[in-house]
Model the fold of this input.
Amino acid sequence: MFKKALVSVASVMVLAACATSPTAHSYKNDYDYVTQEDIRPMVDESKGVYSSDVVVSDKTKAVRKDFMNAVGDRVMFDFDSANLSADAQKVLTGIANYILQSGEVDGITVEGHCDERGTREYNLALGDRRAVAVKRFLVGLGVDAAKINTISYGKERPVDNGHNERAWAKNRRSVIVLN
Amino acid sequence: MKKIILSVFVCLVSAFGLQNANALVRIDLTDANANPLPIALANLAGTSEEEKAMGKQIKDLIRNNLKNTGLFRPIDDKAFLQSEESLQKQGPVFSQWRLIDTQAVMVGSVEIIDDGSADKKLRVVYRLFDVYSEEQITGRVYTATLKFWRHVAHRISDDIYKSLTGEEGYFATRIVFIAEEPSGRGYKAKKLCVMDQDGGNYQCLTNGRHLVLTPRFSPTAQKVIYMSYESNQPRLYLLSLVSGEQEILGDFEGLNSSPRFSPDGNSVAMTLTMGHAGNPEIYSMDLRTRKLRRLTIHRGIDTSPSFSPDGKSIVFNSDRAGKPALYIMDKDGNNVRRLTYGDGKYYAPVWSPRGDLIAFVKQLNGRFSIGVIDPQGEEERLLTDSYMDESPSWSPNGRVIIFARQKGDSTRVHTIDLTGYNERQLPTPTDATDPSWSPLLQ
Done:
């Protein structure tokens, strides 16, 4: 359950050999006596146990393109809200029908996103709420809940990097990604 | 695996001279309008060129630390009347220092010792004098491995700050934060990085391939807890700065965010949605047993917990009354009461290490501010105002707040004094967000 992020011994050795100046210190509480020690460089993620690169097959690419063209992949939200507007419900109804009718969709990931006008942690919570609101609506229309994964990105993945109302409105969104 | 341990010491060999409680020189930290205290910092003397250069480096770092507080006004070396040679031979001639209107003068020396071991040693002696009472305020000898000279300089800075303000300093501290760099993918690559509070010893611990957010130091500063998407899900990780090993903390379904250590370091408060998707709630985990305890039960958003320094209470962020506001509860989740009733929205509360105040982010009229309020919900004050100020974190002495300020496409880390004055941007090589201040390292 509590997985340890394993770091390959070899990579750590290599990194340690390369490390010249970086040091961190460990300190005892005794005011008169302080030890400091070098630490090994941290997790070498390039050789870590997790990988974020998902290879997308040509077939999946084709299905995704067809999905985009047929029903669209996102719905928008008002500021600080996870309520689904009439427009959003219409789009999601189309998406649900597509998923139910297409034999090609094995599962979907519903992403929740926010604009930059909120703090990081609150937006992560709000993004979760948005993604789950979309999931619940799709499940209500008959999509298998077990096929839907949700993930909040808060304000970390804007599609428009502007700093105005137009950009914020584009970023307050939930995106449905076919797995 | 061979562990590189350089067991080196900063030994306080002796503290000579008692601190004089009746010294004339004193700084009142609560007086925002006080003039900075004029202080003369002489180059630390040395015999060899290497020692002289090190003596100047250490003095310059101390000078920079003290100047940045806004509480001190280091006097230009060129104004000094007494020569370095004379200072070394006979100590400060106070009449000459009084003439240049300084109130305190630091003198000292540096010795670099090559004892044949892998690393050279450093020995620094310094004394701080009150120019008017002509008495020594503080004085110490530090020995350390030469490459840790910066830490020695920070320790001396802390000594001087403490002897003149009566409170602990915050120079021998580190900042953990998120560095932002262009990724070429439309959003910024984020790395987990640490540095000294003055920007020294900068080091990044992740390579920017995965989204990482909101790091916090453990109470001993030996561990960092942070959020990462490296498993393609938002999860919490506990990273040992000593061993370099990290472990995932729980791996619960849904959102895992907002990790905070309890003051004793034995538990972590966090925000989870498992079993109640779309409804973020606050939990605490006992790090020894890994047992979870749910603290909030409300359909609103509950997040951003922060322990009081006595560990008995938790302040948090919730929109349960219709808009984001701050609430306080007992550490077991009981006795929830609302803290903020003002206009606007409140976020990201952090309890001061002194216990007397809670810092927060406030959104009002399209602007964001860092503010403080007392735990009774009184005496709210806003310290900053900008397009976006967020992620406040306290200096260990509770006198300074570090935060992130977004300006256009760029976000940098700033500090501001509790008085609302002395706002400064910290030197970071790249954009930086999510700063968290370590305890005093001593």
Summary: Chain B touches chain A through 89 residues (CB under 8 Å). The first strand of chain B starts at residue 8 and ends at 15.
